[in-house]
Each structure stands twice: as C-alpha cells, then as structure tokens.
Specification:
The protein is mostly helical. It contains 2 helices and 2 strands; from the N terminus they run αββα. The chain has a two-stranded antiparallel sheet. Helix 1 (2-23) packs antiparallel against helix 2 (41-128).
Length: 136
C-alpha cells in the first residue's frame, strides 16, 4: 500500500512538472559557477525533477541498507539469546532428571528396607507365637 502511494505521489509530481514545463518554454540562463548557458525552462525543470528523484532514491537506498543491517544484527542477538536460553533449559532438565533418578533410587532402597523389616517382623512374630500342643 505504501508503494502505491509513492507511485501516485511521483505521478502527480511528474504531471505537475510536465504542465509547468509546457507553460514555461522560454529560454533561461543557467549558471554553473564557471560558465553560463541558455536552456529552455522545460529542460531546467525536468532536469531538476530528475536530479531530485535521483537524490531521494539514493537517500532511501542508504536508509534501507541501514535498516537491513540493524534487522540482521537484531536477528543475530535474538538467535544468540534463544540458544543461551535453550542451553540453560537443557542444563536444568538434566539436573532435575538426575535429581529425580536419585530420589527414585532412594525410594527403591527405602521400599526394600520396609519389605525387609516387614519380613523380619513376620518371622519374629511367628517365632514368638507359642505353638499349641494338640494331642491326638
């Protein structure tokens, strides 16, 4: 949309320049500092318009290159930040997975101790239980 408005603006300026050029066909002196020439006003106006368009194009091109450079630098720093963040996340995941594995191992050992304690309690309770003497 912005390019369309630029095109419309350029067309309007060109149209106004053409009208002014047709209305002003008299010869005018043009001084370059070291020499003076007599040119038709239409040539001076069109030359000025073309020179202005050339300068505007060059300035916009420089600005475009600067913006492109800034965008690329921002993308690089963003990528570096994402890589750093991903590395930190991976580091924390590994740390917590290691802690989880340690806790699972501790839990397994505690469960084995509980089973052994229960087995010992059952053995002790059966040994301490008096056997009834039944006569046949």
């Amino acid at each position: 949309m912005k390019k369309q408005w630029s095109f419309v603006g350029a067309f309007i300026l060109l149209f106004i320049g053409a009208i002014l050029s047709v209305l002003n066909v008299d010869s005018v002196p043009v001084s370059f500092g070291f020499a003076t020439y007599e040119w038709p006003l239409i040539i001076v106006i069109l030359g000025s318009i073309l020179l202005g368009a050339l300068i505007a194009t060059l300035l916009s091109t420089v600005k475009l290159f600067q913006e492109t450079k800034l965008r690329k630098e921002a993308e690089k720093s963003s990528t570096a930040a994402k890589d750093s963040e991903n590395a930190r996340v991976n580091e924390l995941e590994a740390k917590y997975e290691n802690e989880i594995d340690q806790l699972k191992e501790t839990l397994r050992l505690k469960e084995e101790e509980v089973k052994e304690a229960r087995a010992n309690n059952e053995l002790n309770s059966t040994e301490n239980t008096p056997v009834e003497n039944k006569t046949f």
